[in-house]
Design brief:
heterodimer; A: mainly alpha; ABC transporter involved in vitamin B12 uptake, BtuC; B: alpha/beta; six-stranded mixed β-sheet; four-stranded antiparallel β-sheet; 9 helices; globular
């Protein structure tokens, strides 16, 4: 099996794409999970679909940089809209997320249907962005994905202590002079970037799972952020490469669902077997850790 | 009201005409106060009186509708690194994957600046602060595995390593054990002895005269602010809690009818 991957150039590209995808979404996912922004990831990933369709409609190009550029803009717009809606109206966060997700996704589907009329659209294979298609991935796709993933890792490395502080305690961060809003925006932008990196392989429908699931599994095994982030990236890589290869080898198996199923298995095992936090761990502390005990009543 | 007080010393904190509004409802209304250096101030008032909001406005975490805030005689934006802050314990997720020492180290980040990681000097500072709050043996523990009182002490240690001149603490005594309360009071009085200024949102009226030397009675606007002996009167308390019963003081000053 290993030899086969190394020898077959298509499978090698697929595996490489999986590594890049898992690395980016796994690392960012740790912050998404800890800042409790999982639903934002879901809204943003659905919001990228009209961006892809519009980018194709306007340029008639199927270059990965163009399509993913469109996805990036639309995803960023969706994330900004959620923030703007909750800030300026009385619509609550969950409703704003639901609105952005469904309206953008609906628009994306309408545009895709409309694009069916163009013969070259079918050739561009825009439908693969729905559920992901690893087999169609080419070296230039992987190159663009790798650029995005490098930007993510570089930012996390450079701003390590700043991002940790705003993820843990944004008000304290701001009180000590860190620009909490700008740093939050940077993290949201990294989230959009990670989603865009994974779109080709996982698709818009399931992409948010690749942000949440590796991080949730990693959190089970460690109590330290500097171990959780790499471990989350490792789980992401494991699931993406495994799922992508399955789907490349089994005809008609869409890649996104295959990756998410492998990832789901990793999460399930982590929830059960991880030391201390695992359900099967003997003498596990009862109740949720960190849940405040009965507070003294204030007068 | 001027920023200059006895001996021409600059006020540690001066708030002028501060008004904060949330959804058309005033949370703080026309607050004026001057706090000299080297006092330990209790901020008391009923729930919803704007105590936390006052701290957050001084820190620039909420945007006021109007008003001006001077710290050590200068606009707060320029003196932010001179302020230490301890938020309410309930403001963070204690299941966050971070150790006690790492949380305390965050107090050094403001002075470290961008991109730089904490080094030996910062670690020594953080360890000393943990020693002061009596938690050095738990430095590698994940923060969720501490008791509520220990968590408050971690937050206090983080504020201590900020090496500030003005400390703003939001309910440090909320839900703590007797030992923690003793440790915190001792440390706060030590800070005052070093000439630092400490403002504490406080709930237990009974301990105000023993723990603090200054008091601010607040109910959307300030009722009184001054040395405990002058400001902490029954009349002022009644005005502060006008629409609320005055719980602890009624028991201390007016002898309650025995229940059994």
């Amino acid at each position: 099996m290993t030899l086969e991957i190394l020898n077959d150039p298509t499978l090698r590209t697929v595996a490489l794409g999986g590594v890049v995808l898992g690395l980016g979404s796994g690392a960012v996912g740790a912050y998404v999970l800890l800042r409790q922004r999982s639903l934002l990831g879901d809204a943003v990933s659905h919001a990228t679909l009209p961006g892809i369709a519009l980018a194709f409609l306007l340029t008639r190009s199927k270059e990965p940089a163009v399509l993913l550029g469109g996805a990036l803009l639309a995803g960023w717009l969706g994330s900004w809209l959620v923030e703007a809606i909750t800030r300026t109206t009385r619509v609550k966060l969950d409703s704003a997320l639901g609105l952005v997700l469904s309206v953008f996704f609906g628009l994306g589907i309408v545009l895709l249907t409309f694009l069916q009329r163009y013969p070259e659209a079918g050739q561009a294979g825009l439908n693969r962005f729905l559920f992901g298609q690893a087999a169609s991935i080419r070296q230039q796709d992987v190159l663009v994905m790798a650029l995005g993933a490098s930007a993510i890792l570089l930012t996390i490395g450079l701003l390590w202590k700043e991002l940790k502080t705003i993820a843990f305690d944004p008000e304290f961060a701001e009180s000590s002079g860190l620009p909490a809003r700008a740093l939050g925006l940077i993290l949201d932008t990294l989230t959009v970037l990670a989603i865009v990196v994974g779109l080709h392989m996982v698709g818009v429908v399931l992409m948010s799972a690749m942000l949440v699931a590796p991080a949730a599994a990693a959190r089970q095994w460690t109590d330290r952020l500097d171990r959780m982030v790499p471990l989350s990236a490792f789980f992401g890589i494991l699931a993406s490469v495994g799922g992508a290869l399955f789907s490349a080898l089994i005809p008609r198996l869409p890649t996104g669902p295959a990756i998410v199923l492998v990832m789901g298995t990793l999460v399930f095992l982590s929830l059960l077997a991880a030391p201390n936090r695992g359900l099967l761990w003997p003498g596990r502390a009862r109740g949720r850790p960190g849940f405040p005990k009965a507070e003294r009543e204030s007068p | 009201m001027g920023g200059e007080r006895k001996g021409g010393a600059t006020a540690a904190l001066e708030v002028r005409d501060l008004t904060v509004v949330y959804r058309e409802r005033p949370v703080l209304w026309n607050v004026n106060l001057t706090l000299p250096s080297g006092v330990l101030l209790a901020i008391v008032g009923p729930n919803g009186a704007g105590k936390t909001t006052l701290l957050k406005a001084v820190l620039g975490l909420v945007r006021p509708l109007a008003g001006q805030i001077l710290v050590l005689g200068e606009p707060v934006e320029r003196k932010r690194h001179r302020i230490g802050y301890m938020p309410q314990r309930s403001s963070v997720d204690w299941d966050f994957p971070i150790s006690v020492l790492d949380v305390v180290l965050m107090g050094t980040y403001g002075k470290l600046g961008w991109f730089r990681r904490p080094g030996r000097r910062e670690r020594i500072q953080a360890l000393e602060a943990l020693e002061q709050v009596g938690l050095s043996h738990l430095k590698d523990r994940q923060i969720g595995k501490l008791s509520g009182g220990q968590q408050q002490r971690v937050f206090l240690a983080r504020a201590l390593v900020q090496e500030a001149d003005l400390y703003l603490l939001d309910e440090p005594f909320q839900g703590v054990d007797a030992l923690t309360e003793e440790v915190i009071v001792h440390l706060l009085q030590g800070l005052r002895a070093q000439g630092k200024t400490v403002a504490v949102v406080h709930h237990d009226l009974q301990t105000v005269p023993t723990y603090f030397d200054w008091v601010l009675l607040l109910n959307v606007h300030p009722i009184a602010c001054g040395p405990v002996a002058e400001a902490f009167t029954e009349e002022n308390l009644r005005a502060t809690y006008s629409r609320h019963p005055v719980p602890s003081l009624a028991q201390t000053k007016v002898a309650p009818p025995s229940k059994d």
